[in-house]
Amino acid sequence: MSSNLRILVACKRVVDYAVKIRVNAAGSAVETANVKHSMNPFDEIGTEQAIQIKEALAKNKGNADVVVVSCGPAKAQETLRTALAMGADRAIHVESDEELQPLAVAKLLKAVVEKEKPDIVILGKQAIDDDSNQTGQMLAGLLNWPQATFASKVELAEKAMTVTREIDGGVETIKTPLPAILTTDLRLNVPRYASLPNIMKAKKKPLAKLTVAELGVDVKPRLETLKVAEPPKRQGGKLVESVDDLVDKLKNEAKVL
Ligand code: AMP
């Protein structure tokens, strides 16, 4: 196994998974004002994976430099501090108050990759706010790197990794040379909680700031959102007296039999 690696982990700040999402009054987006935000859950899994690789390498006197990166407004730094408290070594904040669509993020990450030269870039399979499932794939395309998406198991070897992928109705195992892109699926690991001493230590870890202009990336949105709507309200249920009654209603009222 390679004894020294650099791993870049993309972490997005999103509306917390436990918040009941509401559409804004204009019907143009999800309401984000005064709503709890946290790290995208698939990015917590990505950070955990990078730290587990670091811990495994440390047992053989190796090291992984775990660098976390987030693109977005100033508050993205809170997400980066969480990743540092989990065990990442340093953070990069690409500051932008503009809307950043997946292609824009992929281009920004490409510019960061060119500076940092990581062996592996880990992203979530999707961000739970826009559910795009695009950024990792686009980054692989822009870099012309191999990609292992929807990972549920990762094994590192010398300049290569073997990845088990979640696919429809089963799993697929692939081997890719490094450098490569990895996107995380839910079953890859269970992310750790940051302990209080580690949260304190994280405040002193390095957090570098970059601007979109410094990276020279055009982040102009390419997609226009026409409308955002909530799913139709569920109708109330009905109690039936017997199985015969149920069959009768399914046949004659719902007409599904
Ligand atoms: P998406 O393609 O939007 O579903 O996002 C997939 C993954 O790309 C996320 O899980 C993150 O790892 C990464 N990503 C997307 N947007 C950002 C962002 N603004 N900053 C950092 N990483 C991001």
From TrEMBL:
What this chain does, per the record? Answer: The electron transfer flavoprotein serves as a specific electron acceptor for several dehydrogenases, including five acyl-CoA dehydrogenases, glutaryl-CoA and sarcosine dehydrogenase. It transfers the electrons to the main mitochondrial respiratory chain via ETF-ubiquinone oxidoreductase (ETF dehydrogenase).
Q: Which SMART domains match?
A: ETF
Q: What is its main location?
A: mitochondrion
**UniProt keywords, alphabetically:** Electron transport, Mitochondrion, Transport
- Give GO cellular component annotations, separated by semicolons: mitochondrial matrix
Q: Name one GO biological process term.
A: amino acid catabolic process
Recorded hits in PANTHER family, A to Z, give: ELECTRON TRANSFER FLAVOPROTEIN BETA-SUBUNIT, ELECTRON TRANSFER FLAVOPROTEIN SUBUNIT BETA
Against InterPro entries, the record matches this protein to: ET-Flavoprotein_bsu_CS, ETF_a/b_N, ETF_b, ETF_beta_N, Rossmann-like_a/b/a_fold
Instruction: Indicate what this protein is called per its UniProt record.
Output: Probable electron transfer flavoprotein subunit beta
What is the required cofactor set for this protein? Answer: AMP; FAD
* Classification of source organism: Eukaryota, Fungi, Fungi incertae sedis, Mucoromycota, Mortierellomycotina
Q: How does it assemble?
A: Heterodimer of an alpha and a beta subunit.
Looking at the record, the residues that make up the Electron transfer flavoprotein alpha/beta-subunit N-terminal domain are 27-219
Localisation per UniProt entry: Mitochondrion matrix
Q: For this protein, what does the record note about how its cofactor is bound?
A: Binds 1 AMP per subunit.
Family, per entry = Belongs to the ETF beta-subunit/FixA family.
GO molecular function list: electron transfer activity
